[in-house]
Amino acid sequence: MSIDQETIIKNTKRYFETANKFGFMTEELMSFLGESFIKAPASSMTDFHNAFEGGLIDHSIRVAKYAVLINKSLPAEEQVNEASLIKVCFLHQIGKAFLYTPCTSEWHRKNQGKMFEFNETLVSMRVGERSVYYATNNGVKLTEEEFSAILFFDKTDDKMSEYHNSMLGELLKMGSTLAIKNEQKSGK
């Protein structure tokens, strides 16, 4: 599955307009991420989700949509700041911008659905760690809660993050889970 160039352009425009509206996209980060981010897939295999060019931005927008909907359904006193929620949803996987390279093996693409391989030149980090690294090294200010939400969204083996996560972090995880389920169901 894939999305067409028109959708990639539309999603990219929406992503950066929203990021600018909420004031967390710096020129430095935009320049750093560049075209690699715009073209980045959300995963490497078709069995996962959004393993196609433009898949990462498409996924990030969907995560934010679900997280915001869940947040709005909560009692007012339990809701988190929407700007902060959108910020973590849009930044939580920017660490994938340079993570994948196209799989050149036609056999692997056809028989295993392996569309991308891991970029072996990168230092080993979890996506959340790399995302926080990219954001903070490129002028993005994060609150302690935002930092924690992004850092721990993909740490399933860390009991501290599992039992002591903030509402912001939980909303990010729920939005991500629902986005992935939707993408798998729709074949993206």
Query: How many beta strands in the DSSP annotation?
Result: 2
- Biggest sheet architecture: 2 strands, antiparallel
Q: H/E order of the elements?
A: HHHHEHEHHHH
Query: What's the N-to-C terminus distance?
Result: 5 Å
Number of alpha- plus pi-helical segments: 9
**Percentage of residues in strands:** under 5%
Indicate the radius of gyration in whole angstroms: 16 Å
Low-confidence segments, ≥5 residues, pLDDT <50?
none
Fraction of helical residues: 55-70%
Name the structural class: mainly alpha
Explain how this protein is built.
The relative contact order is 0.17. By secondary structure, this protein is mostly helical. The radius of gyration is 16 Å and the shape is globular. The longest helix is centred in the last third of the chain and has 20 residues, at 167-186. It has a two-stranded antiparallel ribbon with strand order 1-2. Helix 4 crosses helix 9 (167-186). It has helices at residues 5-21, 27-39, 55-73, 82-91, 106-112, 127-137, 144-152, 159-163, 167-186; strands spanning 100-102, 116-118. The mean pLDDT is 91.
Outline the secondary-structure elements.
Elements: H1 5-21, H2 27-39, H3 55-73, H4 82-91, E1 100-102, H5 106-112, E2 116-118, H6 127-137, H7 144-152, H8 159-163, H9 167-186
Antiparallel strand pairs: 1-2
Label this structure with key terms.
188 residues, mainly alpha, 9 helices, 3% strand
In short:
The protein is mostly helical and 188 residues long.
